C-alpha cells in the first residue's frame, strides 16, 4: 500500500450528539471481519496494528468510538484489529495499566502485530492524517485535545492515545500494574521510556487533534505520587513480567463484529497491599 493513502480526507466530522445503535454501525462496516479485523483488499498493508481500548461502564462512548474509528483506520490502509478490554467485578477503581498488560498478552496468544495503539475510549480523532501506522520510535498521538485548548498540557505527557511497537512495549515491561483511578499510570510510562532512553515523537498538533467525550471524573489515585517516586526501582519487576502475581482473571474472550471483547475480573487486595508497602517505604 502507498505510504500516503490516497483516500485520507484531513479534518473528520466528529458527532458527539447521539450514540449510534451498534447494529446500525455494523451494517456500515460489513467488510470488517468478526472480531474487529480488517485489511486492505487491493494492496498489502505496510503495518499490522492492534488498537487496545481499556473500558468500563461507558457503553455509549464505546459505540461512538467504534463508529468513528473504523472508517479512519480503513482509509489509512492498515491491517488492524480492535480490542476492548473491559474490567469486571465490584472493584470501584479502574486499573488501566493492568488492563493494557492483560490485553497485550491475550492478543499475542492468537495473532501477531507490528505495533499497538493504546487508546482511551473517550478520545475521537479529528484528522485522519494523524496516522496510526507503526513508527520506529514511541509515538504520542493525542497531542492536541479540545479539553486542554488543543495544547500539550506538559512535555512529559505520554497518555491518551499512544503507539508502541511490540518490542518496545516488551522492553519497557509494559505498564505498571499498580496504578488505579485517575493519575499516574501515563506518567509512569513516560518515566519508563526515559529510563530506557527511548525518544518520544509526536505528530504536528495541527493534525494530532482529538475531541474528548464528556464524563464524570474518575477517582484520584491516592498512591500516585509515592508510586512515581519509586518508578525507576520498580519497572524491571512491575508490569508484563509479574502479571501472574496480580489478582485478575480473564473471564472470556468473545469476538463481536466490530471488536474482540476481553473481559477481565479484577480483585485487587494484593495490588493494594503492594501499594501500601510502596507508600510506607517512601514516607
Number of domains: 1
Given helix and strand content, the structural type is alpha/beta
Helix content percent band: 25-40%
Head-to-tail CA distance between termini: 55 Å
Give the helices and strands as they follow along the chain: HEEHEHEEEEEHHEHHEEH
- CATH class, named Alpha Beta
The amount of beta strand, in percent, is: 15-25%
Q: Report the major sheet.
A: 8 strands, mixed
Beta strand count: 11
CATH topology: Spore Coat Polysaccharide Biosynthesis Protein SpsA, Chain A
Short characterization:
The chain is of the alpha/beta class. Helix content is 27%, strand content 20%. The protein has one domain: Spore Coat Polysaccharide Biosynthesis Protein SpsA, Chain A (Alpha-Beta Complex), CATH 3.90.550.
How are the elements arranged and paired?
Blueprint: H1 22-27, E1 37-38, E2 48-55, H2 59-75, E3 79-88, H3 96-107, E4 115-119, E5 123-125, E6 139-140, E7 144-145, E8 161-165, H4 166-171, H5 185-195, E9 209-212, H6 224-229, H7 231-234, E10 248-255, E11 260-266, H8 269-282
Parallel strand pairs: 2-3, 2-4, 3-11, 7-9
Antiparallel strand pairs: 1-3, 4-8, 5-9, 6-8, 10-11
Subcellular location: Membrane
InterPro entries: Galactosyl_T (IPR003859), Galactosyl_T_C (IPR027791), Galactosyl_T_N (IPR027995), Nucleotide-diphossugar_trans (IPR029044)
Domain Galactosyltransferase C-terminal: 139-216
Amino acid at each position: 500500500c502507498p505510504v500516503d493513502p490516497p483516500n485520507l480526507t484531513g479534518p473528520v466530522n466528529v458527532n458527539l450528539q447521539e450514540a449510534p445503535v451498534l447494529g446500525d454501525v455494523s451494517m456500515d462496516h460489513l467488510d470488517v471481519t468478526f472480531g474487529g479485523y480488517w485489511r486492505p483488499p487491493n494492496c498489502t498493508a505496510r503495518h499490522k496494528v492492534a488498537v487496545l481500548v481499556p473500558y468500563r461502564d461507558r457503553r455509549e462512548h464505546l459505540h461512538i468510538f467504534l463508529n468513528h474509528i473504523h472508517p479512519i483506520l480503513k482509509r489509512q490502509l492498515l491491517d488492524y484489529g480492535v480490542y476492548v478490554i473491559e474490567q469486571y467485578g465490584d472493584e470501584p477503581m479502574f486499573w488501566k495499566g493492568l488492563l493494557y498488560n492483560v490485553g497485550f498478552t491475550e492478543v499475542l496468544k492468537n495473532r501477531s502485530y507490528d505495533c499497538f495503539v493504546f487508546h482511551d475510549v473517550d478520545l475521537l480523532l479529528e484528522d485522519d492524517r494523524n496516522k496510526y501506522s507503526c513508527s520506529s520510535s514511541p509515538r504520542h498521538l493525542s497531542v492536541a485535545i479540545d479539553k486542554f485548548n488543543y495544547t500539550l498540557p506538559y512535555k512529559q505527557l505520554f497518555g491518551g492515545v499512544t503507539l508502541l511497537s511490540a518490542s518496545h512495549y516488551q522492553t519497557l515491561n509494559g505498564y505498571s500494574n499498580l496504578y488505579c483511578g485517575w493519575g499516574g499510570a501515563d506518567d509512569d510510562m513516560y518515566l519508563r521510556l526515559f529510563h530506557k532512553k527511548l525518544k518520544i515523537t509526536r505528530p504536528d498538533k495541527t493534525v494530532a487533534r482529538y475531541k474528548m467525550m464528556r464524563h464524570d471524573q474518575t477517582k484520584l489515585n491516592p498512591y500516585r505520587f509515592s508510586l512515581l517516586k519509586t518508578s525507576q526501582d520498580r519497572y524491571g519487576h512491575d508490569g508484563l513480567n509479574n502479571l501472574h502475581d496480580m489478582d485478575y482473571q480473564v473471564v472470556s474472550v468473545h469476538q463481536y463484529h466490530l471488536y474482540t471483547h476481553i473481559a477481565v475480573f479484577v480483585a485487587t487486595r494484593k495490588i493494594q497491599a503492594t501499594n501500601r508497602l510502596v507508600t510506607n517505604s517512601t514516607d
